[in-house]
Amino acid sequence: MIVGIDHLGVAVESLETALRFWQGALGMTPEHTEAVGEQGVGTVLLPANGVRIELLEPTGPDTPVGKFLARRGPGLHHVCLLVDDLDAALRTLTASGLRLIDEVPRPGVEGSRIAFLHPAAGAGVLVELKETVRR
Question: Distance between CA 121 and CA 106 in Å, rounded?
Fold first, then answer.
């Protein structure tokens, strides 16, 4: 079911400020920037030897990342795992009794299909499953 790690999501208060560290200090070059209106975030993807760092800036305080920042402050938000068949993965996880946030896939960054598992299912870690666009 899992074919790899796509990215680590990092909640930030400001993409501009965060990029001073990730790009300025560490020399990482953004490969993709996108606003995801449905999730209320602006994102920047930074490649790191096959795994990416996804910086997440909320568009407002009532968005999921905005609420996360208010509760916990900036930092690791989620781990994104690649799956070859998201629908099958969700069926398997549902049948095993795991708690899901998304029972139906939704649009993600770069035209992907994604779904989140509840942190209770991931030993306290928010897990995103990602399937790239089917061709």
Answer: 19
Q: What is the CA radius of gyration of the chain?
A: 15
Range of the domain at 83: 2-131
| CATH code, domain with 104 | 3.10.180.10
The reported pTM is 0.93
- Count of domains for the chain: 1
Kindly report the backbone phi and psi dihedral angles of residue 64, in degrees, each rounded to the nearest multiple of 5, phi listed first: -55, -45
Structure tokens at 134: 């089917």
The CA distances from residue 135 to 98, 109, 117, 132, in Å, are 29, 17, 25, 9
What is the tens place of the pLDDT at every residue in 51-91? Answer: 999 999 999 999 999 999 999 999 999 999 999 999 999 99
Say how far residue 7 (Cα) sits from the centre of its chain.
7
Tell me, what amino acid is at 27?
Answer: G
Q: What does the chain come to in residues? A: 135
Q: Which residue type sits at 128?
A: E
